[in-house]
Amino acid sequence: MNILVTGGAGYIGSHTVKELIKNNHHVIVLDNLSKGRRKAVLKAKFIHGDTGNKKLFTELLKSEKIEAIIHFAASSLVGESMAKPAEYYRNNLVNGLSILDAMREAKVKCLVFSSTAAVYGEPAEIPILEDNPTIPTNTYGATKLALESAMNWYSLAYGLKCISLRYFNAAGADPEGELGEDHNPETHLIPLVLRTALGQSPDIKIFGSDYPTPDGTCIRDYIHVTDLAAAHILAVEALAGGAETNTYNLGNGLGCSVREVISAAEEVAGRELNKKFTDRRPGDPAVLVASSDKIKRELNWKPYLNDLRTIIETAWRWHKEHPKGYAD
Ligand SMILES: NC(=O)c1ccc[n+]([C@@H]2O[C@H](COP(=O)([O-])OP(=O)(O)OC[C@H]3O[C@@H](n4cnc5c(N)ncnc54)[C@H](O)[C@@H]3O)[C@@H](O)[C@H]2O)c1
Predict the structure, then answer these.
(1) Which of 84, 129, 199, 309 has an alpha carbon within 20 to 30 A of 295's alpha carbon?
(2) Which residues contact 80 (CB under 8 A, 6 or more apart)?
(3) Domain extent for 200
(4) Could you write out the DSSP letters of every residue in 277-289?
(5) pLDDT computed for residue 283 by the predictor
(6) How far is the CA of 282 from the centre of ligand 1 (A)?
(7) What percent of the chain has a predicted confidence (pLDDT) above 70?
């Protein structure tokens, strides 16, 4: 298929582009490089542009005969989203609506959308199911949920087919060592721990040690980025085969605490790290673990790289070989 990937120079996008090409799809990446890295786009055709540029977007859909879009491009820092809601509504919702309108104009029917566990807010139950209440506790989650909702109504009225993938914590790096995680600023636990192991930070901060969990630290669900990429291929191929608009969680189903992640990273890196315990961050639920049974059942998704050690080993290899990220 001819597939347009927005945000394909970012962390999850670049890994997905690599897997799409391996699966013989023809990929065009559109990225404004606000966060992404040009070097992370290995083989696809690259267009430097913004999702909010509807004219460019519509022309691209037509001239490249695009059959499906995978839409990663977004602003995704929870703290920043609370300080700058206007920016988040514009990039995540307004630009998303512009994409849906361009699809209508260019008669492109299929869209896979990067949604997030943040749409659930404080979970009603663990593991979290797709039909659990969605009550986001931050602007980021609210903007993603708003676009999901628009996609549902556009599907009914205009016949678009959209799959929303609600990711939990994407982690790890390309097992072949070509791609990795290089966010700036970095807010994700595993790269922060590994940067500490590389001596780039004096200690690793642990936000709260009095949660009602076995070791007192938060439990999260880490999914390997290459397993995540594979789910996008299944989703886009399902849409091309006639699947209807739908929503799926994507996690591992295995919760790991912050302390467990740090211990596993210490083992992989072969060194003990300084830990700094600080207060809980407001709005951080104690446990966030997904049920991904629906996507396993309906799209036959099977994660292969799901144990914590593999996730950390692949990430460690990339960080060790690229201590300055893509700047190396
Ligand atoms: N990383 C995670 O754990 C996680 C979890 C849940 C959901 N998500 C979602 O997955 C998607 C990808 O996440 P990521 O970690 O790869 O983020 P990322 O920041 O690495 O990638 C996003 C990419 O989109 C580009 N971009 C942003 N706004 C753009 C615009 N208006 N026009 C064109 N390009 C634009 C950025 O330059 C960047 O390359 C995001 O939508 C994010 O909200 C990520």
Answers:
(1) 309
(2) 87, 88
(3) 172-221+253-327
(4) EEPPPTT--SB--
(5) 78
(6) 23
(7) 100
The reply to whether ligand 1 has any atom less than 6 angstroms from the CB of 47 is no
CA of 69 to the centre of ligand 1 (A): 14
Bridge pairing between strands 219-224 and 255-257: antiparallel
Tell whether ligand 1 has an atom less than 6 A from the beta carbon of residue 232.
no
Is the pLDDT at 328 greater than 90, yes or no?
A: no
pLDDT reported for residue 297:
98
- pLDDT (mean) for 262-275: 97
Last residue of a domain, one of 231, 250, 269: 250
Between CA 175 and CA 313 the distance in angstroms is 9
Count each helix (H run) and each strand (E run) in the chain, helices first. Answer: 11, 12
- Ligand 1 centroid distance, CA of 149 (Å): 19
Do 78 and 155 share a domain, yes or no? Answer: yes
* pLDDT at res. 282: 80
Query: Residues 76, 179: one domain?
Result: no
Q: Does ligand 1 lie within 6 Å of residue 52's CB atom?
A: yes
